[in-house]
User: Which sequence fits this backbone?
């Protein structure tokens, strides 16, 4: 089957890359929006019990982090989570999305790179965010529901590590896209499989391990800051010349 070399994609991680947020922030926001006192107490109890596990998972295993956070959503209705996701995007994500990230997406789009979000965040948050950014396709973690209520379990595959890379591969195969012509943006060492899956990996606000590897591989490294103007991205604009 012939590969269409003109079709190109920019895959974006979300938390820490496009926005100064992480999955734990989303979990805390969900708790804050649960109005029923019994549910709030139950949710808080589950969250506090898992804090040590969340801390370890954040440092060692993103799949474990995803499972641990999503377990705390057990008992919340699908409709409630969708409403909370909309509120999270409107009142939290809108303030924590890097202005340089918005500019980057639009610059890449103008260069012919179709934007695709690949995130370990829940779909009830990623979907409304994608709509706000004009992004049609995304991959996100999906909760299982029973009679419209979250069970706390996730559908496979858990969107972390190598599974993010596998999504990119399947996405490209289905559309005859050559990943060698595609770009990926991420902030964490745990996203290395995702970054290695494409021909043009970029480290954004990288942690120490990722920064070290990015420098050894001569990957572009960019830094976003909520306090700086979007025009600061022009320092990095040279990486777009070769697209």
Assistant:
């Amino acid at each position: 089957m012939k590969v269409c070399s003109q079709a190109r994609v920019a895959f974006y991680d979300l938390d820490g890359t496009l926005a100064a947020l992480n999955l734990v922030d989303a979990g805390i926001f969900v708790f804050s929006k649960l109005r029923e006192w019994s549910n709030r107490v139950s949710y808080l109890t589950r969250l506090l019990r898992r804090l040590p596990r969340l801390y370890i998972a954040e440092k060692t295993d993103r799949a474990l982090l995803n499972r641990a956070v999503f377990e705390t959503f057990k008992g919340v209705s699908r409709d409630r989570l969708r409403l909370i996701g909309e509120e999270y995007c409107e009142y939290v994500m809108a303030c924590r999305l890097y202005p340089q990230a918005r500019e980057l997406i639009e610059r890449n789009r103008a260069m012919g790179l179709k934007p695709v979000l690949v995130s370990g965040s829940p779909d009830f948050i990623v979907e409304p965010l994608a709509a706000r950014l004009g992004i049609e396709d995304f991959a996100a973690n999906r909760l299982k529901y029973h009679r419209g209520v979250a069970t706390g379990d996730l559908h496979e595959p858990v969107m972390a590590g190598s599974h993010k890379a596998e999504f990119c591969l399947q996405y490209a195969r289905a559309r005859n896209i050559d990943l060698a012509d595609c770009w990926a943006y991420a902030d964490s060492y745990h996203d290395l499989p995702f970054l290695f899956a494409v021909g043009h990996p970029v480290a954004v606000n990288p942690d120490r391990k990722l920064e070290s590897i990015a420098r050894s591989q001569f990957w572009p490294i960019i830094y976003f800051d909520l306090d700086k103007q979007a025009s600061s991205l022009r320092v990095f604009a040279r990486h777009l010349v070769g697209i």
In short: The longest strand covers residues 113-122.
